[in-house]
TrEMBL record:
The lineage of its organism: Bacteria, Bacillati, Actinomycetota, Actinomycetes, Micrococcales. Keywords: ATP-binding, Ligase, Nucleotide-binding, Purine biosynthesis. It comes from Leucobacter rhizosphaerae. Coiled coil: none annotated. Its cofactor is Mg(2+); Mn(2+). GO terms for molecular function: phosphoribosylamine-glycine ligase activity. PROSITE patterns: ATP_GRASP, GARS. It is an enzyme of class 6 (ligase). The keyword Phosphoprotein does not apply. Belongs to the GARS family. This is Phosphoribosylamine--glycine ligase. Residues 108-307 form the ATP-grasp domain.
Amino acid sequence: MKILVLGPGAREHALVLSLISEEAGHDVVCAPGNAGISASGVETPELDYTDPDAVAAFVQERGFDLVVIGPEAPLVAGVADPLRAAGVPVFGPNQDAAQLEGSKAFAKRVMDAAEVPTGRAVRVDTVDAAAAVLDEFGAPYVVKADGLAAGKGVLVTSDRDAALAHVATWAPHGDVLIEEFLDGQEVSLFFFADGHDVVALSPAQDYKRIFDGDEGPNTGGMGAYSPLPWVPSDFVEEITRTVALPTVRQLEAEGTPFIGLLYCGLIVTERGVRVIEFNARFGDPETQVVLARLDSPLSRYLLAAANGTLAEQPAPEFSADPAVIVVVASEGYPGDVTTGRMISGLRAAGEVPGVHIVHAATARGPEGEWVATGGRVLGVVARGETFAEARERAYTAADLIELEGAQRRSDIAARVA
């Protein structure tokens, strides 16, 4: 197939690597892609991937058989809509269904209608209103910006003043949700969805805070591992039955079928599993470890979701080998980031057994050198026969990468190794 992957990040790099590794020999293009994807031998044309008209024109010109939308911004912008209207198979929800991620309030309403287990939430639009709700719920406080915030719109804190300051920051941009604090282990579980049926992938756990021990501010994700040996054997079946399928069927009943990747952000509490959030696309960095273990052809499920034929597909098969990813970030991330610094050691890191590198924010300098261009720069992905081996390989490779001021956590997957 001729496949277009839209997006510029490490998630898209992981998707591309999975697609080009298939025996079918697909013609894969990633727009706009990044320097690492280009170095993988994949065409990365310049394209405003958040502009529905520009993407539709590009797809019409090039004649792609399947379009896979990676990030949330083009989904919420409605990039899928004109493509689907033109009969192009698209993996990614339309603009209305993408509000499952684009609006926390929309997601809560859908969950309530579908009787999906989640925490209490109250929508506020002023600091005064927020103060009353915070006092009702008590600490720790959970404050979420309603719209997209690149992983930085959520604050969990016991500091009431900090919670109110977060409301003051985001309220001018839209409503803010104050939510009940849920205590437990978090799980990321992805589902392919075709508007009616769902197919589960393997669970993963990510690390959102910048520092070891889950300290410091939230980030887009500093690492992840898969599978999760500590979840019950029927965990995926339970979440399919109580969360994913009811949500997709509710959206179908409302006339906004969800076609693409349903990301269920879950928390395992003493009272059972609860949904923290939905996303409308593959999560980053969990995608990198889930796909590293996927033995079935990814394209089969992407196309089946786009064509409404998931029920005809066999369950995806995953390697028993665990996978771990360690993210390398620039100095200052997730605040004011220092960019433009040289990166070395990538070749040596990629030669560690079981390791491959995904690029998030890199460029090539005039002499071919690698340069960091953003906050999360690279992901070091490793597989091994055991968690201990996968983890040791990931950190051995990460140690070989040199970037002045680089940040990375040292405790990724430590609890299972």
